[in-house]
Each structure stands twice: as C-alpha cells, then as structure tokens.
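Standup, Tuesday
Yesterday: got the pipeline producing structure tokens again.
Today: sanity-check two examples.
Blockers: none.

Example 1:
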Amino acid sequence: MAAQAPGLARLLSSLLYEGLVIFGILLVGFLFPQIVLTAFGLGAQGKLLWVHLFLLLMFYFIWFWLHGGQTLAMKTWKLRIVNADGSPLRPLQAVLRYMAAWPSVACLGIGILWALVDREHQYLHDRIAGTRIVFEPAERPAA
C-alpha cells in the first residue's frame, strides 16, 4: 500500500507516546549520569546541562530518522518521516528538522498546533525542513 497523510488523532497519539519514550531516555541518559557525576563533584551546571539535553535528544531523533525514518513511537503508530518526494531523509535535512523542532515546540507549541490547520496534518518543522510524516498501513498477507 502507498504511504498517505496521517490522521490527526494518529499523529497526536504518536506524539504523546514519544513523550513517554523521551521521559525514559532522559531518565537513563540525562538524570542518572548527572546524579553520578554530581556525587563525584563533576556534575554539569547551567548551560552545560542544556547542551547535554540537546545533544542526547539530537542523537536519539537523528539516529532513528536516518536509520529507517521511525522512532519507537512512530513505528508503533505506523508513521515514517520521509523527504517531500518520499525518499529517506538526508543527514543535513534531519539536523534541520531537529533544530527547527526546538523553537517550534518552545514557542507555546505553535509548530505542533500547526498540524491542526495544515491540510496534510504536518508539523511546522516538517514544512521548514522539507520533510513529511506519512502513514504506512501494514500490508495484508496474500491469501
């Protein structure tokens, strides 16, 4: 079956699930290391904490976007990030999408709310990066 634009409910459900996955990643990859480092007097402070957070999430998202086009949450909801022409993301395009997602979410979620008015239910950072999220329903096995 061909890829199609996702429904808004599917897109937002995937986003909610992604939040749960990110919580686990931050617990293991951010909080625990900071606790251990602080116990030895080496804990990061101030802007360095933000750099740690930014790089950890960048590694997570870009790795999955470039290796299959799906994070765990997207795989569950049968969503995939592709180039505007349907091809896999290019590395710089994945970085641009990640960088554009930060202000898109931080500015009161305007980039997420954009999906409510977008005809294909795409996020603002997808429009900026020239990417799109598609729904790929599972193919039924041949009888």
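Example 2:
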Amino acid sequence: MMVKPVKRVAAIHDMSGFGRASLSVVIPILSTMKVQVCPLPTAVLSTHTGGFTDYNFVDLTDTMSATMEHWKKLNIDFDCIYSGFLGSIKQIDIVSTFIDDFGNKDNLVVVDPVMGDNGDLYQTMDKAMVENMKKLIKKADIITPNFTEAIYLLDEEYRDYIDEEKIKDWLMRLSDMGPNIVIITSVPEDKEHKKTSVVAYDRGCNRFWKVSCQYIPAHFPGTGDGFTSVLVGSLLQGDSLPIALDRGVQFITSCIRASYGFDYPEREGVLLELVLENLKMPVLMSSYELLG
C-alpha cells in the first residue's frame, strides 16, 4: 500500500471571508504543521458571526453529500476527520454519515461541538441542535467543548467557578457518552478569574490532565478553532496527549499576547500571521499537570 508523504485531515467547517475563524484558521495551522487539509465547507460567509452583522451567508448543506460521494469514488482516506461549527441538524446527520463512511480503526475522529460561549448558546443554536450534537459525539474519539458547551451537553447549570472534583466528574460523564478523550477548554480555575485552564480525561489510561494559563481580558473569536487545530496537528505528528494540550495552550496564549497589545477590533480575531512560525518549534517548557 502506498504510504502518504503527509497526514491528511478532512476538515468539516464553515469558511469566512473576513475574520480569523473556522477554515481560515484551520487550514494555515494544520498546513504549517505539515498536515494536508481537505476542506468540506458547510457554509461560506462574508465574515464570521462573532461581532459582525448583516453578513452574507451561503448554506452549502446541499453540496456536502455530493462532495462525499466524489471522495468515496476516488477512494480518498483520511488520518483524521475533524468537524467544527455545524449550522443545522441536517449537517450533523451528514457529518455522522461521513464518519460512518470514512472512519476506521486507524484514523482519528475529532468533534469540536461548537454551540455557544460565556454561558449562552449562539443565535443559530437551540435545544434540538444540542440533543443532536449529543448523538454526534458518540461517534468521536476526541471532543473539545468549551466550558459552556460542556454544560449544555451535560444539562448542567452555568457557574462562574468549578472545583477539581466536579470538573473530573463532568469529564467522565462526557466520556461515558462515547468519546475516549474529552477536553474542556476555558475552565474557570479560580473565583477571581485570574487563571483559566484546559482539562482533559483519557479513558484509555484513566488519567486526567490540566494545562493552566493566565487569564487575559480579551475575547478573540476563533481561538477555540485554533486550539483544536493545533491539538489535531500535534497528535498527528505523534505527540502524547499532554504535550498536544501544552502545545495548543501555548500557541493560543502566544496568539493572544501578540495581538492584545495592538489597537484593532478584537472581532477580527488573533493576529495569527505573526505567530504561525511558532508551530514549527518544539515544546520547550511543559506546563501540564497530572491530576490525582
């Protein structure tokens, strides 16, 4: 069998013409990490939806299945299937079918259940979308919800702070829904919100991991897409889970720090172009913790 010279990812996300989010973040990050990105666009927008209004939106739901059928005829195989923002229940069903058709024991299925932030669902999301997302994550090897999305997947109440034992309980409950690895981002680590963390659970070895970072009072859309993309690239390069977590947190932190000092609209996203080269560097100082 022919060996692929580089790893290949099917990236099922929307594409925004302006603003760094979704495929405009996924493609440069994974390409820099020497991974081939094969986009399956769910929609094309003039801008992303975080902070912009009156944007042009072209729904590509009706083209997705035709693309899948063509790829099947070409016998294309993927090292990873990676989905992000999905705009409808029909799109969730299409991604589920994609996983059935292209998933196998050797590739990685990563679902970023993009549904909300800061305690609320996005405008395009509702209870039915949440319930169908619960079905999709059953087919994933890894899921990467933020703190808000974890709350909705678990039918929990929003809170400003969560202790270690409770977040470990949430991670195990989410893993019981299907995925072997659960990673929750933007977890408030203290009541003063001076630190935030990424916390993960690997059911295969029954270990919990945490990577903390200093909270910076800025909200840049697309950082979740960036984190999960670095995580995917890192794992495909052969990194361990805690190193992949470390790499993702360090990169997004460097993005935010490089961007925060400039006077420009945060809705445009982090200045990704200034720090992409960082992805070629090894993790020089690991900050992950193994939780007891």
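Quick observation on example 2: The two ends are 43 Å apart (CA to CA). Residues 241-260 form the longest helix (20 residues).
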